[in-house]
Each structure stands twice: as C-alpha cells, then as structure tokens.
Amino acid sequence: MNLWIFFVQHRGEIFAATLEHLQLVVIAMAMAILIGVPLGLLLVHRKFLRTIALGIASILQTIPSLALFGFLIPIPFIGGIGKRTAIVALALYALLPILRNTYVGLTSIDPAVLESAEAMGMTSTQILLRVRFPLALAFILAGIRTATIITIGVATIAAAIGAGGLGTFIFRGVALVSDELLLAGAIPAALLAILADLLLGFVERRLRVT
User: Fold this and answer.
1) Using an 8 Å Cβ cutoff, are 69 and 85 in contact?
2) Per-residue CA distances from 59 to 62, 142, 163 (Å)
3) Which residues of 118-143 are buried (b: 16+ CB within 10 A; e: fewer)?
4) pLDDT tens for the 210 residues of the chain, in order
5) Which residue in 6, 15, 66, 85 is deepest, having the highest Cβ count within 10 Å?
6) CA–CA separation, 111 vs 187, rounded Å?
7) Distances from the Cα of 33 to the Cα of 5, 29, 48, 71, 203, angstroms
C-alpha cells in the first residue's frame, strides 16, 4: 500500500522521468539504426571492413557501461556530463545486435533465390536492395528488438552522469535506502522493456510469416 501511495503522490515526477527515459532510448536507437543497418548492407561485399566493424562493435559491448561513460566524458563535442554523452554511449551499445543481425540476415538468403535474381539480369546492388534486404527484414528487426531492450536497461545507469530518466529514482533509492524510490524507477523501466519486447516481437513474427 505504501508503494501504491508513493506512486500516486509522485505520478507527475515518475511520468516525466519515463518520458525522459524514452527520449534517451528513442534517440539512441535511431542513431544505432541509421549507422548499423547501412553498415550491415556495406559489409556483405566488404570482407575486410566486416572484420573490423564487427570486431569494434563487439569490443564496445564488452566495456562496462559506467566505464564507457567515463571514456566518453573527456572527448570534445561528444563528451561532457548530461544527455549527449549518454545517448552516444547507448547508441554504441545498441550497434552490435543491429549490425550483426543485419549482416546475418542479408547473408542467409537461399542461394537459389539469389541465382534467380542474377538470371533476371539484376546487378549486385539491385539484388542487395531488392532481394536480400526485404528478405532480411525479420532478422534486422530481431536485432533492433534485442538492442532496444538492452538500451532501456543501460539507460537507467545514464542517470549517474546527469542524463536523467528513470535511473534517477534508482540512484536516489540506493542513496536513501528507500524501496519506494528504487521501485519507482525499476518498475516503469521493466514495463518499458516488456512492452518494447512484446510490440517488436509481434512485428517480427508478422514479417517472418509474410
């Protein structure tokens, strides 16, 4: 009952923090998609670039989030305390699942389909954009789904560098040893992750069926 009363009394703050959290996630995911999907398309015919890009993305995801924030803060134009650094870090974390799934989806097409496209006189670029990409959409969306859930979780830690969001309640709850504050940040963040997973999972299944 105390928790419910706390949520009711602080609903405005919680709602504002949730919107702030969503803003971080949406901007970071947009950046990751705009970088990851085109780069994945490019990797199909660039073996050397493929090794470098996937290797760098894998290394970035192994770096602990607070350490990555620390690395980015001193960098001019990108770093600093606040949302800008958090968004860049979140986009870097989201990059690997999107990049990897885009590449896997584009290269796992049935060879017979690609041979038919070649027989029709399509160029490699036309095959990539008109055949590979539409057939790989479900794989790409699966990567976006994974990246979105990761980003929602890591965004709570971004409050440590002044980026706001639901993590502010969690950090305040830890500092004040308050279960209400902890859950005010944890519950909405968990619900956002569940809703994102259900929505993107539904779209992914529809794409696989069609």
Assistant:
1) yes
2) 5, 21, 24
3) eeeebeeeebbeebbbebbbbbbbbb
4) 588 888 989 999 999 999 999 999 999 999 999 999 999 988 887 878 888 998 998 898 889 988 999 899 998 888 788 899 999 999 999 999 999 999 999 888 888 888 888 888 888 888 888 888 888 999 999 999 999 999 999 999 999 999 999 999 999 999 998 999 999 999 999 999 999 999 999 988 887 766
5) 85
6) 46
7) 40, 6, 22, 23, 16
Q: Residue 134 is encoded by which pair of tokens? A: 């539409």
Cβ burial of 203 (10 Å; 0-12, 13-18, 19+) is middle
Total-model pTM: 0.91
- How many CB atoms lie under 10 A from the CB of residue 157? 21
